[in-house]
Amino acid sequence: MAQLDNIIHQTVRLQIMSSLVSLDQNEQVNFTYLRKLLKLTDGNLGAHLSKLEQAGYVKIDKAFVARKPQTFISATGKGRDAFAGHVEALKEIIHSGKG
Amino acid sequence: MNVSQEEAQASLSAVRDVMDQTHRAIASAYANPLLILWGALWIIAFTTAHFYLAYAFYIFMAMAVIGGAGTAVIFRVFRTKAPIQETYSPKLGWRIAVFWILLYVYVVIWLFLLTPFNGLQCNAVLSTAAMFGYVVMGFWFGSTFMIVLGLAMTGVTLVGFYLLASYYCLWMAIMGGGTLLGTGLYIRARWR
Q1: In chain B, how many domains are there?
Q2: Is the dihedral of CA A94, A97, A98, B4 positive or negative?
Q3: Residues from chain B contacting residue A27 (CB–CB below 8 Å)
Q4: Which residue in the set B15, B21, B88 is minimally distant from A26, CB to CB?
Q5: Measured between alpha carbons, how far is B76 from B56 in angstroms, rounded to an integer?
Q6: Residue A60: beta bridge partners?
Q7: What three-state secondary structure class fits A5?
Q8: Separation of alpha carbons B36 and B183, rounded Å
Q9: Residues contacting A59, CB < 8 A, separation 6+
């Protein structure tokens, strides 16, 4: 039986992971773009990303693109597995009818 | 952790919404400039070819050169400005370019092996080859959108070839170019 993931279950982190796992494994998203997509503030997104990074669920890379510093975020394999398990657990709750 | 059915349902619904939003954002960022470029070129080239059939070869060669150059410019711009970047090796970019060159080299070889062929057959083979390339790219990058678009456009080409041969170029301009351009404009307007 799949287990709910405490770190991913929080609403904003669930949104962040949903967005990141939608990308291919070889893709990463720009921090500013993710912030706009999820309608978050810099601080809010940064704080939740730190939690996810500590758990090993996301990878944060800083790079210079066209001479400008940019931050890119991607889901790790561990993060993708944890997200899949969390979604599976949510489905099991719905199907089992248990609270 | 105790989660009710309602909470689980709401969470799954939020997951689906964000995933859809992200997929649309990706398509909007990458696909629409290419679709608009190639759609406009198809409309111009096929319409011109319908009225000036004798110059069809030169018209489509010009389309291929302009389209290829435009595609290269779009990829170069997106390499620095796209919100979603590929982390794979730059070698893959070369592999993609080599795939397209090889595809067209082989198509030209097959056309010569099947000589004689008329302009209509030549055009239908080149058009379906391009769509085959879309489908392969779709499988390569896991893009259902490209697979569906490639298969749909192949169907459009075959319908025009077998059922509307006299109006094939106009059919391809409207249905082929129009579909590409329309899809590009729709994505640009609605998915941002």
Answers
A1: 1
A2: positive
A3: 84-87
A4: B88
A5: 30
A6: A73
A7: coil
A8: 8
A9: A28, A53, A73, A74, A75, A76
DSSP string, B69-117: HHHHHHHHHHHHH-SEEE-S-THHHHHHHHHHHHHHHHHHHHHHHT-S-
Q: What top-level class would CATH report for the domain A6-96? A: mainly alpha
Cβ(B130)–Cβ(B108) below 8 Å:
no
Nearest CA in chain A to B140: A24
CB-closest option in A24, A93, A98 to B141: A24
Which ipTM did the prediction report?
Answer: 0.86
Residue where the block lists tokens 């949510």: A90
Q: Which two tokens stand for residue B192?
A: 């941002």
Reading the block at residue A73, the tokens are: 């975020």
Report domain extents, chain A.
Answer: 6-96
Distance from CA of A34 to the nearest CA of B (A): 8
**pLDDT digit string (tens) for chain B, length 192 residues:** 778 889 999 999 999 989 888 877 766 666 678 889 989 999 999 999 889 888 887 888 888 889 888 888 887 777 666 667 665 555 556 777 788 889 988 988 888 898 888 888 888 898 899 899 889 988 877 677 778 889 999 999 999 999 999 999 999 999 889 988 988 887 777 655
Nearest by CB: A23 against B9, B81, B84: B84
Which of B96, B173, B100, B178 has its CA nearest to residue B140? B96
Residue with tokens 């409309």: B43
Whether A27 and B87 lie within 8 Å, measured CB to CB:
yes
Domain that holds residue B120: 5-190
